[in-house]
Amino acid sequence: MHQRTSVLSAFSFLSGLLAALSATAAWLLYYIGDLGQVCGMAGDDQQGVWLAARIVAGATVLPAVFALAFWLGARGAVRESGGALTGRGLYRTGMLLACGAVLASLGGRWSVSARAAGAMETSKLTPEERLQRAAGLETDAWTASLVQTLRVQSMDTGRHAVLETAIRDRKLEPGQLCAILETFAMDHERLQAARFCVPDKAVMRFSVEEVVALCRAFSMDSNRLAFLDLVAPGLVDMDKSHRILEAFDQSHSKTTAARTIKEKGGTNVARETGHGWLGAEVRSLPEGGVQVASMLSYGPAASAGLRVGDVVTHVDGKGVRTQEELVAAIRARAPGTKAPLTVRRGSATVQVEVELGRAGGKKAEEE
Fold it and tell me: Which of 152, 264, 292, 350 would staple 232 via disulfide (CB 3.0–4.6 Å)?
């Protein structure tokens, strides 16, 4: 008797093969997302890859169901054919492939959840988490409760509603702001939350380290620049503000950030402090005098012609031997006034007149 291969058996095998290929594609996407953690993939991109992996994994069910249906049909057809049809090997292989694909897809979803939990634990080593620890968030029950409530929400829109209710008329610390922003999945939603948390007229103070950590919570320079524009007026250590540029990837973004710092840096704090600002990091010398260690390219010291390596010995004719004495002499003057400096430059002594800027707050002019 001439035997023919059952068409249903072939369809069952092809459906199972398609399910296996779909599961394989889902696993590849899962691992691409995981690899992004190592390679520095943007947070939004990584979430997008994982979402695509979940969609592909879910789609695996469809060919698996077809494989099951064709398996049942082929099995019955082969039995009733009295030996005229073959195809047991095909439909059995197709069914095994379909079952394996479904199990692999479920395993992939579990694996991503487990690795995401591990990533959250590893995040304790990031600058953002160290910032939160430094701000005492581990003992801040209100912040911990708010962060937990925000994470329960499945969508960023829901997080905005919770946040608006929770922090109304409440003054936040930078560390608390960092913890809140980390709960948002998308950059633009994170930026919207920051705008709500940092009102325009509020004097919220930020150190350079805090601004750098908060900027790195965003994945794109454009959003980092928008956030910097928001928090720059609250900078309290303007002489170290050049370090903020390290948080930006592109050179044109660094240029824009420098301009933002120059125009807006410390303006809110300056209204409270009101003392002069030199725009240079200095250090005391053992033999006496205060050496310029570094300067902001847009600061008052650089504009007046001071150079790195210059040693300031007098302010308006009064000798200064230590960093503290120079800081006190500069802070004793109002922004916009001119401070005559006697400077030792190599073997020569030169006079430099600096028009002081507005101070950014504590630790100005210090290392």
Answer: 264
Name the β-bridge partners of 292.
282
Fold of 276-358: Pdz3 Domain (2.30.42)
pLDDT digits 0-9 by tens, 232-268: 887 776 667 788 888 898 888 888 988 888 777 755 5
Higher-pLDDT residue of 44 and 230 is 230
| Half-sphere exposure at residue 145, Cβ-oriented, CA atoms within 13 angstroms | 5
CA–CA distance, 103 with 111 (Å, rounded to integer):
12
- Strands 311-315 and 280-284, by their bridges, are unpaired
The domains of the chain are located at 4-123, 129-272, 276-358
